[in-house]
Amino acid sequence: MPKREEESPVVDSPKHVVVAGVTGYLGKFVAQEFKNRGYWVRALTRSMASLERPGPFTAPAISRGAVDEVFIGEATKPETLSGLCAGPVDILFSSIGISRQRDGLTFEQVDYQANRNLIELCRDSDVRKFVYVSMLGAEQIADLAITKAHERVVNDLERSGLEYAIVRPSGYFSDMGAVLDMAKRGRVLLVGDGTNRFNPIHGADLAAVCVDAAEGEDLVVEAGGPDILSQREVAELAFDVVGLPVKVTIIPLWLAYGLARFIGILNRQFGDLAKFIVTSGEVDGVGPTRGKTSLRSYFEELV
Ligand SMILES: NC(=O)c1ccc[n+]([C@@H]2O[C@H](COP(=O)([O-])OP(=O)(O)OC[C@H]3O[C@@H](n4cnc5c(N)ncnc54)[C@H](OP(=O)(O)O)[C@@H]3O)[C@@H](O)[C@H]2O)c1
Q: What one-character-per-residue DSSP string does 57-108 give?
């Protein structure tokens, strides 16, 4: 049974927001940003423990004091969400999606259906606005399982009758942290020739973009960080920061697609994820510069 741990405050309080995806890299920064701007924050999580753990790659832990109420529920199971949007709730923010989880669920079940369940919940309550995090350029590669799921959420939101904002970020610094980890071990693997360009953004910078989107009028907000880099340049930067010689191994696209197909035969979900990673190694993803934190300063902080 879902349970709320504290009672809602009286009605003439600050704006109320539900944050879904709050245990993830972006969600932790977003909850903090709403809180910093004076919102009353209800966090949806599957478990109290993962809420209090620090997130991956410098995402802050969320203390009980940083959110006003914790709602234990599972977005893929609508029967556990009853009361999540109990009023007053002005905004629901969702960054729910699969990136590192190993639950055996598909992009269709999580990235699409969990967010679809939240949209329906908002429609059945007084929530005014839904802020959803998709991906920069997902519309152009919407034949992949993950991008298809994200774009179906976008289509449903457009038809929902709710006010909404779609945030479309380029890559996250959390994924760049994975490149730094490879550099620390002495070798970085790159898919494709490593020349595709993108401008990843820090979670805290993107959180500010997300809250601006919640407060603004734009339906679609694209966002990237201050540094436009190729994959190879990211690897070179990582080696420079860890003080090791540059060693890059290129996995050519034909081989990477073959591997992704093979993985897909063994496990469809991992195959879909691998295909997305390979495709990302092929396309550019440069969004308007909204972030201020440089990738070098982030790498230095991690080191
Ligand atoms: N990484 C990138 O470069 C990038 C770029 C553009 C867009 N995005 C998108 O941005 C969104 C957020 O990314 P992120 O890096 O913050 O992801 P993340 O760290 O993996 O967090 C994902 C969130 O989704 C929740 N979730 C996953 N599976 C769930 C399930 N079965 N039921 C309920 N909740 C579930 C997680 O909750 P638990 O902690 O309980 O698992 C977590 O709160 C994703 O949709 C991602 O596709 C990512």
A: TTPPP--GGGSSEEEE--TT-GGG-TTTTPSS--EEEE----SS--SS--TI
